[in-house]
Amino acid sequence: MMRRRRTGTEAATSSFNNETHPVLEIRHATRTHGVEAREVVALDCANLTVEAGEFVAIMGPSGSGKSTLLNLAGGLDVATSGDVLVEGESLAALSIAERARLRRRSIGYVFQDFNLLPALTAAENVAFPLELDGWPARRARVAAKVVLEEVGVAALADRRPEDMSGGEAQRVAIARALVGARRLVLADEPTGALDSATGTAILHLLRERADAGAAVLMVTHEARFAAWADRTVFLRDGRIADTTGPSNADDLLTESAR
Amino acid sequence: MEPWKLTAAGHDELERWWARPVDREQRGRDELIVKLALAVDSPGVDVARLIQRQRSAMQQLLHDVTRARRAVLPEELAARLVLENHIFATEAELRWLDAVEGEVARARATPSVVRDVPAITQPSVSGHPK
Description:
The complex is a heterodimer of chains A (258) and B (130). With 258 residues, chain A is α/β, with parallel strands linked by helices. Chain A is built from eight helices and ten strands. In chain A, helix 3 packs parallel to helix 5 and helix 5 (166-178) runs parallel beside helix 6. Chain B contains four helices and no strands. Chain B has a domain at 30-113. By secondary structure, chain B is mostly helical. The radius of gyration of chain B is 20 Å and the shape is elongated. Chain A binds chain B through residues 2-5, 7-8, 59, 61, 207, 223-224, 226-229, 232, 234, 236, 241-242, 244-251, 253-254, 256-258, and chain B through 52, 55-60, 62-68, 70-73, 76, 78-80, 82-83, 86-87, 90-91, 94-95, 98.
């Protein structure tokens, strides 16, 4: 008799407090560019909620609004109408400085090309957002090393990005996205620059972080990686066209494969 | 006590079976391929919606198989291979749907060639190109 490995929230070792409100709420968000005849609707009345411990994938063709949605979720852009709430705070109601502070404290970004600062070591890169937020350098470095340990790259702490593989650099970037107990991780094609096996390892890590209580929103064009999420949301022409997730038939599939 | 034993002829057949590639000829009769081939030429069928419904269903299958694959233990090699086959096959079919959608959109954008929508080709999951 084969044993069944625990998956999803069964295996979660929560490192976050349980909250009742969603980490991310996008309410009727529309983003347009240009005016009148030249108006382009990048996102059209989108609604999306991501709870703590939930992993949501966004898919869609080029120009469907994926990046716009991610930028609105991260406070890098502002909706023309509608609202975006992060941990219950409306981004539209915040000043630019307040929004920047919320981004530093609550939101972590993971990019396709890692975006690590080349002159800094892994530990310094991870500590950097904390130091920007006013943490004393020593305390920030300690926190950075804890997160590097959690994502399995503690040994890289003193290494610079040029001396890392793509997979290692992306793990460091994920550590940077999580440091300071930020609960919303926004990943934009995080496997785009990686080979399939390394991409799978990164998805494993994002899945683990969601299982530990983070809210993860990932844009990807790879269906196999979107399938690691709890839901896949399809965007088309700026609108949410469809949402799908597992049917809970996995036990049957596993048994049939054995 | 052994419940059964291969005969010499059985051994020969087994050897031939191992040596022979698996025939994929029947894939062309796949219901999805037939349905889409008919849909692009049938008036009143919303092909884009049909494709999106199919894409959603297949993505759901991919979620299920991926969950099952994650639950497989490292030592369960055969189970892993079977589930990965499902993942590759589903992924290939999803890519094929993307290609169909693109071809249909291009054909629709050029009214003069609507009747000449290219023949839908099956996904190259494995086996020989047609």
